[in-house]
User: Fold these one by one.
Assistant:
Number 1:
Amino acid sequence: MVKNVLKILGILILIFIIILVVKAVTISPKQVEVREAFPYKIDTMSVAQHLSEAIQIQTVSNQETSKTDVKQFEQFHKFLAKTYPLLHKKLKKEVVAGYALLYTWKGSDPSLKPMLLMAHQDVVPVEDLTKGEWKYPGFSGTIADGYIWGRGSLDIKNQLISIMEAVEFLINKGFVPKRTIYLAFGHDEEVGGQGAKAIAKLLKQRDVQLEYVLDEGGAIMEGMLPGVESPIALVGIAEKGYLTVKLTVKGQGGHSSMPPHHTALGILAQALVNVEKNPFPKNFDSPARQMFEYVAPHMKFPLRILFANMWCFKPLLKWQFEKSESTNAMIRTTAAVTMAGASEKENVLPTQAWAMINCRILPGETMDSTIAYLKKVIGNDAVAIEATPWSNDPSPVSDIQAGSFTSIVTIARQINPDVITAPYLVLGATDSRHYNALTNQIYRFSPVKMNAEDLKRMHGINERISISDMGKSVKFFIALIEKTHM
Ligand SMILES: [Zn+2]
């Protein structure tokens, strides 16, 4: 009897394993086939030279607007006008909210909704402390070793210059877009994005509805996932929401020689411990899952068995994802306790203790649901919770079946035949969040190859882009604009 049961069990397990392996072997790739090669030759050195000049203009934005050196932005506008004369002749240029730029290239078919290409003019500073660690000075725009070096070369003057180069190139060829194309370049993305917000508001006032928006946010990542050899062009289809909450606990104050059992700070500390001990629920059915559906067919065994059978291994994958900070952030709302304060003297009881928690909200959840969850896990009415300004809900999730998504991934592979593409959840916030009211399709992608080390260069030391990548980036935007009929 026992023998028979074991036999049947053995057969069932074998069948189960066969099903898993068959699924992993037969899982069909979701990559688009690209047949045509990119048809034009690009003068890559001239492109590199233009990016170098753009980097040398120090368009650093400052949280305190009055401290921003606006002359740099004026100079940047002059540089663009001088470098891209055909564009400035053909497109309508508007300066919005001080220094943000909106260009309009009228399409031949007014029945088609316009598309909007984004970047930002501003960069973060080169910190005095790190100046000596740069191989070439941070604002030199040095062209050396096959790279263009300097602040903004990856974030994100590379994109801005690529878009300008592409438009100039196509006008020179006599190309007329079918759809109207907007180019929208904010001047303060790094400090809040009021420029992008103002442009979006202006377009809304004009009743503009967009086919799609393309902003920074994803890139072609190398060595990002274990078991995947190809670089992955990650096209952001959503971004997490941003919410900082302030917790406040009132105390009685007084001398610390006769303290209560719990001071305001002690109560607050318990609240923070509760938040860290009770992370937000994991949700694998987010854009993370869509990403792995694209990537799984290109994974090596045995990993492919796991990712090709997510229906079965979801709990295991969730558990595995939770272990690393970067993958954990993909599958849940995160809460980081970042600031705190209480009494200003060691022998005085605090009359108030406060702390800041910065939350990044997973699409599908909201600021309200995030605050409700925090209230629940803190479980103490003595702890007041309020949202601070500059917070926003997560973006909607853009459609990966849309023609615009197909155009982007097709061209990414046309220009870089060695890459695979995948939809992606952007963990940070981009300027594109201001456009949610104008379109359902917002994508975030820069056609630049990056590895873990390059990610540190953004906002860090030795920011650089390879000359070859810069050329490919221009090609990407030429091909994308040529596809405006799609
Ligand atoms: Zn940026």
Note: The two ends are 66 Å apart (CA to CA).
Number 2:
Amino acid sequence: MTDRVDDQSLRGFLAMVQERFPEEFLRVSERVDSRLVPTAMVLELDRAGQSPVVMFDRLGDFDMPCVTNVAANRRLLAACLGVEPSALPTAFRDRSQNPIPCEVVERAAWDEVVLEGDALDLTKLPIPYQFTVDAAPYITAGQVTARDPLTGVDTTGFHRLMLKDKNRLGVSLHSRRRMYEYHRRAEERGESLPAAITIGVHPLHYMGSMTYAYGADVRKYEIIGALFGEPYRLARCGVGDLEAPAGAEMVIEGEILAGVHEPEGPFGEFTGYASYRSTQNVFVAHRLRMRRDAFFHSVTSGMSKDHILISCVTREGEILNALRRNLPNVTGVHVPHSTCGAFLAVIAMKKTAEGEPQMAAMAALATELYTKYVIVVDDDVDIFDLNDVFWAIATRVHAEKDIFFVPGAKGAIIDPSSDPKDFTLTKMGIDATRPSGREFAERLVVPDEARERARSILRGAGITL
Ligand SMILES: Cc1cc2nc3c(=O)[nH]c(=O)nc-3n(C[C@H](O)[C@H](O)[C@H](O)COP(=O)(O)O)c2cc1C
């Protein structure tokens, strides 16, 4: 396959990492149990503050290699966009404003091997079993694509896929975004939804697939093209006029059944809890197409950085997007990993008048169902340092007037705090900014010059800073 296709592929990304950031690539050549050990390794790396991509040459009894921890590293994601890590959310937001039409190429890299009928057996893929609570091994890096039965516009997004049989996967569409709606529309007509699962895509595909603040007629593939800065190269696969990225490792063609619900889960979710909540849909596979030397990709699930970091970055970008329309004085947004990359957003602003932090908090709380707590701080606070954020809350908040609640708001199905009957919850905004228009206590600061001198002395004494 040509380099043009591979430039936008997962293997193109891995080649970039090995060439420019060799210290961020870990190859495990010894045979490793596919049950629990890969997850434990990635969580141990997270704990140690390390985020290399991990390539397992041999998992369990499988011959196919499996890569994980592809999206756990802000430095590597920033390199994909050619920016510094601190500029990642803004670059993501700015680039995704200008979708670029896709290019459809004749042949895809994944057309080299085609398995169907009796030869199709998904249990032969090196699918890790990630947590003891999981109902089965799960495909976690499957980008599911389908077309809207009404408009023909397609979508792509990760959905967890429970291995049930050689050609049967359980799927949960709990995000209730496009795929949930497309399936509902197909079901209304009594039809299954033709769909394809792409495995082994570039992290920019991963990022672009998470966008949501765009018109329903904008293809996510075009937003992914915008992130690449050139048309995303797709090829036709063999189901329902669908197109998939030409450089992917493999594509599973099939359909999400209408009117069929089967037990799906539990699954170790990004919330850090076992999730028993699911839309309980069923995907039936008809065909597997793959590269002759295909490798598998698995997102390490649970609260790993691999599972959560892109959600942090894309939410930061999307919330910025919502705020910049009315509040140009917002200077940054951070969605911390420790709040599952979902439930809390910290906003920094140069406040010009009272009430602006409340406006910012309300706009951010309304961007989507996962954002349930918002803290607004002044721009002297480092929003990427939660110690600094808690210091601002401790020293600048009058609880009775600076904290407000929005009861009965729609929450996420898999948020364990949402009401089990209707999934509502109470959202909260905290204004942790200084009062405007009057003197406030003066913050202690160490001048940059003295700080730099101190750092150089400490470095000279062998202390890593
Ligand atoms: C690793 C990962 C796994 C995900 N799993 C699911 C899932 O099982 N079900 C779901 O509805 N959303 C899941 N999401 C979120 C969706 O991928 C995301 O909301 C996406 O935008 C939905 O795409 P859609 O608009 O095509 O439905 C996951 C996200 C990530 C990063």
Note: The mean pLDDT is 95.
Number 3:
Amino acid sequence: MSTRGCVAIGTPEHWQGVYNHWDSYPTYLGAKLWEHLHPNGQLRDLNAFAEDLLMYGDWREYLNRGVCPCCGQKGVGQPHTISGPFYDYWLRSEPLPEPFQSNLEKHGYPDPEAKYHEHGNGPDDQISSEYPDPLYIEWVYVINPANKVMTVLTACRAPKPANAPVFESIRPLRVETPQGSVWWYPDIKAAYRHVVVASIDLTGPEPDWRNIEVEGIGSVTKPTTSMLFLPCIADVSGYISQRKETLSVVRNAERRCI
Ligand SMILES: [Zn+2]
Ligand SMILES: [Zn+2]
């Protein structure tokens, strides 16, 4: 199952960043991000990194320099809702069913005409502290170029606010409480928020990601994304049956599924 996250620029209170679909845990995304920020062991120019990152909507799109790995088009957004069997292309390197294999050999991409996948909206897909969706965005890595600190946030369940709105809404609503703001999800009648797990000096030694992960998982009640698992559209078409999404994710963000 995917563990959603965000690589962001800003401060723990005010951040904006790109979406990450798979394995956003510190031991994976945290470590990858550290490696990316320290090519050859030297800290990157963080202002340049920030400017570059925020041209995109998705971490993979950023890593791919905006080139869609399905069709090879540039600047079209991250691919999603992939209905062709070439999805397996990402999972294992086996010959693809036709016409994807021929396409790959002829054009270098399995679906060059984008007949079997759609595209995201680039920077319009960014996530920010204005609407952080802490039920689904489980880990956020906020990089502050000004002080060269990376703050790791994790999502946790918060007590039901006394002033929780009573009206129905599919989108979560921000509620101010004496402990700070939380996000109230009326459909599941639960509140979530992001909390700081670690502040890491990017000029110092690499932290122990496992400790940060254990700290993040242990110190808070993790989101219990409804236990009702439903297949996403791609699963329905039978190509990625091992990938399951939650009901709410299907409802909210089908376009984010690949
Ligand atoms: Zn594409
Ligand atoms: Zn999916």
Note: Residues 26-37 form the longest helix (12 residues).
Number 4:
Amino acid sequence: MSTRIEGRVLRRGDYRYESRRREACWHAGVPDRYPEVIVLANNEDDVVAAVRLAREEGLQIAVRSGGHSWSGSHLRDGTVLIDLSNLRHVTVDREAMTGTAQPGIKGSELNAMVAEQNLFFPTGHCTGVSIGGYLLQGGFGWAGRDYGPACMSVTGIDVVTASGERVHADETQNADLFWAARGAGPGFFAVVTRFYVKLYPRMRVTMNSGYFWPASAAQDVYRFVHEIGRQTPTEINLLCCRDPMTDGAPLISLNATAFTDTEEEAREQLSIYESCPARPHVITTRLNEVTDTETLSRYGTDPHYDETKHYLADSMWTHASFDDLWPNFEAMLKTWPPAPSHLVVFNWGGYEGQPERPSMAYSVEDELYYGLYAAWTDPADSRTYTNWVTNHMRAWEPYASGIQLADENLINRPYRFVTDENLQRLDVLRAGWDPDGLFVSWLGRPEPRTAAVDTKDSPVAGPSE
Ligand SMILES: Cc1cc2nc3c(=O)[nH]c(=O)nc-3n(C[C@H](O)[C@H](O)[C@H](O)COP(=O)(O)OP(=O)(O)OC[C@H]3O[C@@H](n4cnc5c(N)ncnc54)[C@H](O)[C@@H]3O)c2cc1C
């Protein structure tokens, strides 16, 4: 068995090991977990060799594509960390509207490449996120309500399995592995070295409107978003963050984006925000701007993600009324952490244009998505902000139908991220594909569902197996 590796191999204690370990995590809150070996793979053969190396040395395997896991789920003790950031090859077939992409490419880079051919792929809302982890955990992206989670646009994968074999998986070959790869996220039990994807015609018009309120308008704004979120075809990004515009107090910004064929249609779609009951109290607006997703990411989303800070994220899917969520939100407003800590709410499920879900591991969705992110500078504050996020999300559990692995806090608050049936099936598949438990799994694991919300009512609960 050859374990010759063309890329760099860094062992604990080696010069550059620690800096590389730290660089493997996108933010400053690098966990105290130490891989035994870091393999910077140059190609697929290196991945095979790294899997063999782990077996030979009796180590487990963790995988990194872009290192944007909030919890640093790829940094694990007793592992070979296979770092795929150099696997960045992309192909685009304009005629067939398909492509292939390796996991180290960033979503924003992929979208710039397909845009050159007037095509589109539903990549994430931030510039820096690589597609490897993003697609495996679902993929909550631009125009995602039109295309579903981005993993729905994956048609096949090339993987290196726990036995060191290179296999292809899609709907017809190794279909169970393909099923798992669309939603297992950090619990996937093989290394994906290439994704095969569907591409879409690029929308002619992307138009955005922004409204900014003081926190005193919160109830009216959030209630309005809960009421219209499901019906409107526009994509809502409702964000609460301390801001200079409100002298450092929490500011509520509603950004709505229309993806349409004509400017007239986009304006018509965005006109609904003029009927928000809080409209008279708005501090400022930015209405009907023709733009593109790259600009929206760069100036709208990215400023909230500062790699020099420590971060903790958590999340929930919900279809609760805002009145049920308000008491916890009101308490949060009184203790809001410093910028760029924020709460973001997106409308997602239950509207007419939504595509049908295929059978896949990804199986928990709902009308609205809440993501909560604390950011801090001093490591001494870690406990305070970890508790702040975890306890406030725990307070909302009676109204949550699940979380998204994109923003998981499983180590502190294990919560349902796929249906119970799908979790069981993932366990069975893992036992088959990785019988020796070579691949590490999720950092925490939810108990079978007991929460108070009856998700049978959820309009968008996905299929289970
Ligand atoms: C600033 C920021 C913005 C974000 N915005 C969005 C967003 O808009 N939408 C959204 O859906 N998510 C978003 N996320 C979450 C992000 O998609 C996930 O954290 C995702 O895992 C990041 O991908 P990555 O390749 O960097 O993952 P990594 O951190 O490299 O890996 C995370 C885990 O995924 C698994 N994994 C990664 N690559 C592979 C592979 N090739 N083969 C097998 N397993 C693999 C491993 O188990 C690993 O532990 C954001 C995160 C951050 C930090």
Note: The chain has twelve helices and 19 strands.
